[in-house]
Amino acid sequence: MCPRELSSREQQRVETHVTRCPECLDRLQGEVGWVNGMRLMNRMRRKYTHPLKESRSQK
After folding, report:
1. Residue 54 above 80 pLDDT?
2. Where are the domains of the chain?
3. Which residues contact 53 (CB under 8 A, 6 or more apart)?
4. In terms of C-beta density within 10 A (0-12 exposed, 13-18 middle, 19 or more buried), how is residue 42 classed?
5. Whole-angstrom Cα distance, residue 51 to residue 1?
6. At 18, phi and psi to the nearest 5?
7. DSSP-based helix, strand, coil % in the chain, nearest 5
8. Rounded distance, CA 43 to CA 37, Å?
9. 9-35 per-residue burial string, b: 16 or more CB within 10 A, e: under 16
10. Cα separation of 53 and 12, whole Å?
11. Residue pLDDT, tens place only, 10-51
């Protein structure tokens, strides 16, 4: 059976679930190498999303 194409909304829902579910994240990490990149991307996004907040607090 060929997997069907997901809509962008469905894909976003699945990605959100996977990032919040440790069991799913571990399963994907075992099967696919992109999870480490996704974790790194999320860490970078959190670090650089609001750089002004950090610079204001340092003043």
Report:
1. no
2. 10-58
3. none
4. exposed
5. 47
6. -65, -40
7. 80, 0, 20
8. 10
9. eeeeeeeeebeeeeeebeeeeeeeeeb
10. 28
11. 888 988 888 888 888 777 777 666 666 677 777 767 776 665
Given this model, what pLDDT does residue 55 score?
53
User: Hey, what are 51's tokens?
Assistant: 């750089």
Cα–Cα distances (Å) from 17 to 23, 28, 55, in that order, read 10, 12, 32
Round to whole Å and give the CA distance between 44 and 38: 10
State CA 11 to chain mean position distance.
Answer: 12
Q: How many CB atoms lie within 10 A of CB 38?
A: 16
Record the tokens describing residue 45, joined without a space: 């996004």
